[in-house]
Write a structure and sequence with these properties.
This protein is α+β, with helices and mostly antiparallel strands and about 400 residues long. It is built from 13 helices and 20 strands. A hairpin with a 2-residue loop joins strand 5 and strand 6.
């Protein structure tokens, strides 16, 4: 097979990139290790920044999101049984975020890609990237159903294949530096069949630590509580989960609306960045290049930002035969990535209880929360980061 851009991974980064390239008349092929059902049914939360919502509309992919997504003008911070509304829209000139799960975004992107005749090869394995430091890179792989070795010859390779994919590993270890922070706490997440308890997301630091009240639909809600990442989910009965949620989200005169818990699980939290994000004719994007704790709602949005930068660079290359923007891809992305890493770290440390911190440090986190309540500048900074910083 021959194409201009070979893309490994049918997650947000790979699929958005394919649509952006198609808009510029640039051919691409996507390969994905999972089958389509697994990609579309792996449930993941999603908060879309304002500009991502607008981009989906521009690409003709926003109809279902506009109809089914939940558009929020603000968020609620809670501590010491008190709540404070952060007027995101008012602080950012009317910008809002959309609560629209990532797997629903992927369904829209896949359907749009296939409707446009763009190839996605699902269920492939043994993927190897080679000749990346030449003008003729290639991707070797085998389809799960045939086992036959196949090759995509291309001008450029994009590793949008997640943290464990071959993309980042194809950058020689001597050419890359990796930065990582492992947090000493995790999240226990649940899906519950219950009506809305509050009109917007609540981020709380109360009781034994963090809790998040989010939503999926008018009758299905997503909630999280801070927990031991090495804990056994079997030790968390439904009754214990509801008790903790009520404690961490409770305020005077209000209680959480409960319902049957239909899904629960524990995830660990970490921050990760790989520098640089390119080697020869290989470019990595999304989780292949960086991970953020979900507290700042930046993961999917950063992935889309990466490929927006990359699509513009590829468009410039094919139109002018210049590699200037391509050569600056990593540096351009990393400026935004480190700001998002900072914001995610700030939200995570401010809202969680850390057993390794002193009482002094925990009081500082409450002061941070109160500063958002009392300082217009602090509130505006949080709001601007939450809806998405402008591009360079």
């Amino acid at each position: 097979m021959r194409t201009q851009v070979g893309i490994v991974g049918a997650g947000p980064a790979g699929l958005f990139l394919a649509h952006l390239l198609h808009r510029s008349g640039i051919e691409s092929i996507i390969i994905e290790s999972r089958n389509r059902t697994d990609v579309e049914q792996t449930v993941r939360a999603g908060v879309l920044e304002h500009w991502v919502v607008e981009l989906m509309k521009e690409l003709g992919l926003g109809e279902r999101m506009t109809r089914e997504g939940h558009f929020h003008d603000g968020i609620t911070l809670q501590w010491n049984r008190q709540r404070h509304h952060v007027d995101i829209a008012g602080l950012t000139g009317g910008k809002r975020v959309a609560v629209y799960p990532q797997h629903e975004v992927l369904k829209d992107l896949i359907a749009g890609r296939l409707a446009a005749g763009g190839p996605i090869l699902f269920g492939v394995g043994g993927t190897t990237l080679r000749d990346l430091d030449t003008d003729h890179p290639a991707i070797d792989f085998r389809r799960d159903d045939t086992g036959v070795l196949e090759t995509i010859h291309c001008d450029f390779v994009v590793g949008a294949d997640g943290f464990h994919g071959p993309g980042r590993q194809a950058i020689p270890a001597a050419h890359r530096t990796e930065y990582q922070k492992i947090y000493p706490f995790g999240w226990l997440g649940i899906l519950t069949k219950a009506p809305l308890s509050w009109p917007e997301l609540i981020y709380a630091n109360q009781g034994d630590g963090f809790a998040l009240l989010s939503t999926r639909s008018p009758d299905v809600q997503r909630m999280y509580i801070q927990c031991d990442p090495a804990g056994d989910i079997a030790g968390w009965s439904d009754a214990r989960i509801w008790d903790e949620l009520q404690t961490r989200l409770g305020t005077d005169g209000w209680s959480l609306t409960q319902g049957p818990i239909v899904q629960k699980g524990i995830i660990s939290l970490r921050s990760f960045v790989c520098e640089p994000m390119q080697y020869g004719r290989l470019f990595i994007a999304g989780d292949a290049a960086h991970i953020v704790p979900p507290t700042g709602a930046k993961g999917l949005n950063l992935a889309v930002a990466d490929v927006l930068v990359l699509s513009r660079a590829l468009d410039s290359h094919y139109k002018t035969n210049s590699r200037d923007l391509l050569d600056r891809y990593s540096a351009t992305c990393l400026r935004r990535i480190w700001k998002a890493e900072r914001f995610s770290w700030y939200m995570t440390t401010m809202l969680h209880r850390n057993a390794h911190e002193s009482d002094f440090e925990q009081r500082i986190h409450f002061a941070d929360l109160d500063l958002v309540r009392t300082s217009a500048a602090s509130a505006r900074s949080l709001a601007e980061n939450y809806v998405g910083l402008p591009f360079d």
